[in-house]
Amino acid sequence: MHPHISKLYNSALKPSRLIIGLMSGTSLDGLDVALCKITAAGVHTQIEVLKFTTVDYSDDYKTKIKQVFAKRECNLEYLTLLHPWVGKLHGDMVNQCLKSWQINPANIDVIASHGQTIYHCPKSQHQYNDFNNGTLQIGDSDQIAVTTGITTIGDFRQKHIAAGGEGAPLAVYGDYLFFSSSDENRILLNMGGIANLTFLPQNGDSSAVFSSDIGPCNTIMDAYVQRYFNNMHYDENAAIAKAGVINTALLTALCDNHFLTLKMPKTTGPEVFNLAYLEAAQQASNTQKLSHQDVMATLSRFTAEVIANALNTCVKMAPNSVVYASGGGIHNLLLMQHLVTLCPAIKGFKNTHALGVDPDAKEAVLFAILANECLAGEQLHLNNKAQGIAGVTMGKVSFAD
Ligand SMILES: Nc1ncnc2c1ncn2[C@@H]1O[C@H](COP(=O)(O)OP(=O)(O)OP(=O)(O)O)[C@@H](O)[C@H]1O
Ligand SMILES: CC(=O)N[C@H]1[C@@H]2OC[C@@H](O2)[C@@H](O)[C@@H]1O[C@H](C)C(=O)O
């Protein structure tokens, strides 16, 4: 047996493992790095987040990714070169974290790497009859493994697609295993570039559990700020949006979209919800001349209405649901205020801190859970046909040597 196989086998047999979860989301703000101690697997999973940080991306990284990100057409040579380059960079970032945390890489069982989504293409969003669902993440795991010397599990989304899913949201697995409760109906709401939710009814009926993208959260607002405000990545504390007035005509045009009418579960991305989407809505509502503040105020309300519709659909199925939010959008208090106003039937808005997980770390932790399942899990029986997720174990293994 090759030594790397026996090392992996031994990791799988251990009562607990040290796993580094890596998440690079659609907002392109940085690489989230969560060092987790995960004990057991499946419904017995226990997690301790030992360290968490976000390693900020340089402007150079953002510029390079934006050459291809969510674009229907791109330079294939550039994309081919970006794939190993991003992997190497993520590996370097992990090394930098381990050094500053004074942790010996030999003590880490595996790295769980999400990679950088470049294009997400569910069937509902493309016109090719011959093709089903597709999604593409770059940042090759072999590069991470070789750079860090740590076995790396990556490319999680492809198995979900192979099993009939859309490749997202994968949050449902970790959310179900770790955040389900027999005491309350829960909705785990992630507010990143795209908003998604996992519905966890308290009756423990796994066939009712589902996860779905909702629509845009920060993605259009971030793109707008980046286009019109020099050196700003996002509207910090909603300062711009708060100075504006909601425009009803633009709001109505923004809400008029096919994806938003589809039933959950469904997935989407910045391929649909982007500046072109806003510009089309402005044209349709003849609101091209609004101030930046009014546009941002309207986008904020639009985001809140889209998320509120999804939450209100869930709360009809599970009264007294409590929302546990995560992701950068929770820091946008204007958005959160709108949500509370629009969702009177939600029993409470909390964040995942209340459940023991830093809301900014949650997605990175979820990928550590998926890697743990890949190593030590048993077949999952969610029996959830609507989602097409029953019993798949995700991730591809890259060895360092
Ligand atoms: N103080 C703040 N005020 C307003 N918005 C904020 C604040 N802090 C973070 N954000 C928003 O959160 C975003 C980052 O969120 P996050 O890191 O969860 O996204 P992501 O993981 O890249 O997205 P996804 O989950 O869709 O892949 C920022 O781009 C910004 O829009
Ligand atoms: C294709 C892709 O990268 N999708 C992301 C994105 O960011 C949020 C939302 O859209 C979600 O579907 C997904 O990420 C989370 C981690 C998920 O799969 O659960």
From TrEMBL:
Any single Pfam family the record assigns to this protein: AnmK
Pathway this chain belongs to: Cell wall biogenesis; peptidoglycan recycling; Amino-sugar metabolism; 1,6-anhydro-N-acetylmuramate degradation
EC number: 2.7.1.170
Protein's UniProt keywords contain Nucleotide-binding: yes
One GO MF term attached to the UniProt entry: ATP binding
InterPro entries (UniProt xref): Anhydro_N_Ac-Mur_kinase (IPR005338), ATPase_NBD (IPR043129)
Reaction(s) catalysed (UniProt annotation): 1,6-anhydro-N-acetyl-beta-muramate + ATP + H2O = N-acetyl-D-muramate 6-phosphate + ADP + H(+)
GO biological process, one term: 1,6-anhydro-N-acetyl-beta-muramic acid catabolic process
Residues that hold ATP according to the record: 25-32
SUPFAM superfamilies reported for this sequence: Actin-like ATPase domain (SSF53067)
Record keywords: ATP-binding, Carbohydrate metabolism, Kinase, Nucleotide-binding, Transferase
Function: Catalyzes the specific phosphorylation of 1,6-anhydro-N-acetylmuramic acid (anhMurNAc) with the simultaneous cleavage of the 1,6-anhydro ring, generating MurNAc-6-P. Is required for the utilization of anhMurNAc either imported from the medium or derived from its own cell wall murein, and thus plays a role in cell wall recycling.
Family: Belongs to the anhydro-N-acetylmuramic acid kinase family.
The protein, known as: Anhydro-N-acetylmuramic acid kinase
